[in-house]
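Q: Joint fold for the lines below.
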Amino acid sequence: MTEHKTTKPKAALLATPKIELFAGIIASLIIAMFPYVYFANRNLELLSASDLWISAGMVIAHWLMLFLINLAILRSFEKASFATIVAALPLSLFHIGLNAVQKIMPNVHYWHGIVLFITVYIILLLVIHWYLSPNLVRKLNLIIGGIFLILILVNIMPSVLHHFRTEKADITVGGDVFEKVENTAISREHYPNMYLFIMDEFSGQEGLERYTGYDNQKFYDDLEALSFNVSKSSRSYTLLSRVEITNLLNLSFLADFFSEQERAEALKSPYLFTTLKAMGYDFNLINDQKYISIPDSFLKYQFVPQGLFQREENLAKILIEKSVYFPIRIQPKLDRIDIIKAMFDYGKKSSEIQETKLFTLGYFMFPHHPWVVNEHGAPLPESEIKNWKNADTYLGQLKFANKLVLDMVNEIIENDPQAIIILVGDHGYRQAFHLEKLYGIKMEDPELEYFFMRNILSAVYFGGEKLDIEGYSTINVLRTIMDELFGLGLGLIEEAN
Amino acid sequence: MSKRIRIIMAVALTGLILLLFSTRIVLLATGHYLEKKEIDTAIISPDVLFNFDQFGSTGGLLKTYYIRGWALNTGYESDTEKNISIIFKADTFGYEIKPSKVVRRDVAVYYSELNLKPEGLGFEDTFSAIAFKDGTYEMFVKVWETGQEASITTTNRHFIKEGSSFKEIFEDDDKALIDEYFDVKNFAVGD
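A: Joint structure:
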């Protein structure tokens, strides 16, 4: 290779056609964006629009930072672009590489990877600076950029085609709610506080017995002793939280699979919220993982227990976990336990906020994984955090959830005996589904397993009164309560069985 | 050899040296470094009582473990300063962890006949499994009053460190005995 002295960078800059300079910079951006496109494309149905924007912003900011550092060191746009190309992927996929190396050499740790990366990176910067001509670097930028552009197009093409082929669901919710509310004869001053607590992955009795062999009767007995009405045979309509929660907040089964735009549209003014708002209710949201995307304009109070990087299911988290920055996601599991306890504490305190007309919606990603505690609340080994093979891991966290739930509702009833408290799971324990998805362990009778995996917790405290909810889906439980309280005449929809 | 090649080789050499010593540097910087030493555990005292309320992985880059419990010697004087350490011993060497002291009124109340103050009866700490050399370890509890001779007892718990994995060894027959042993005094939560 020929040595090139790096004199007169300004002159070299001016001599380079602007279009090639620009193409080189864009090439480095394309490569930096590749992991984002890849992982976004594979998790598209689980992501919200804000996820996509936040993650894209994060990746672009990271690329810009790298580019500016390289520019400051190399003082050449094309060489800075090339150095960014070289660094972007190892940084973005650092954790995947480290895991692969650790399988062969288990004593290799994060810091070894960092030292190795920095050493190789410095050597590469020196080589680029001293030995590569701007002309060669320009060509390499364009070639590598072109290859990755093709890879990106190949990745996104199936999703784009699918998007155009899929018919849009007709989302018309709300209807004549305001008229109905105006016609109700119940005195507005006496509307009770309502609490809807959605416990993610909280299995009902039947599903729990099938997958763990555990009889949770004591928990149901304790709920009944607190005057709860319980249903052991209730089912969700789907196994997907985003779909189920969107449906139940609209009190109807809209579609079995939304596009992101449709889901976002359906949550802009969910029927349950618009109805209750028209009745004069205020809203209080406990938003674990900031999972519920109802507009803030609805909310008078909100409790978001964690920041972006502590959330469990979003694209930013996926990208960070694959990258060199993954240690910021490794929170000691005790943090998660504290977060869970803080949410339940806030749930209790919600009964002290207003005497009437407050609707508290609590979404708890619990006893959903990460499985971090046993039945006594003591931390589990790290290996159990997402261990679908061991049903006892889930069961331990569910038993701990039993205690936290009982403790919370007990205090709410003490403070607010006229309350309406609705305890539901958004779906049951999905072990069979995950064993097939993650380990290829086939379900012998998928329909039967889906039946049991959709068996959910369902219990209602109706101001201490009786209410028959046996076998009702959460949507029908909510419709029954709305009819009983406000005489809306919503009736029931087809059951989830 | 040109100056440029010499610079590149110097960078590579520095990287290599850092690579070799990085684990030790990280452990020292985070306070998790453990000195390998010879520890005599030949004399086991029957007067040492203990319990681990919690012993579990908290994970992270350093693969830390959280321990919490209590330990005492039935021959303690009431007003002395009490100390506890946890020992992991391999065949020829061991590591001694000196955890933070915790006030345990529940233990003092339970053993009221010993007339002990609750200060220093409990312990709590995290340690990094990375600080251990590969091998099989037996865990001991060491207690002593400041200025007095220490007493040691075995927990009958064995661990294996292999690469990045640090696991307790259970043999089915022994496990039942161990469970029975720990069931003798099992407090739910401390202060």
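Q: Anything notable?
A: The interface with chain B takes residues 102, 106-107, 109-112, 115-116, 118-120, 122-123, 126-127, 130, 327, 330, 332-334, 376, 378-383 of chain A (CB under 8 Å). The longest strand of chain A covers residues 358-364.
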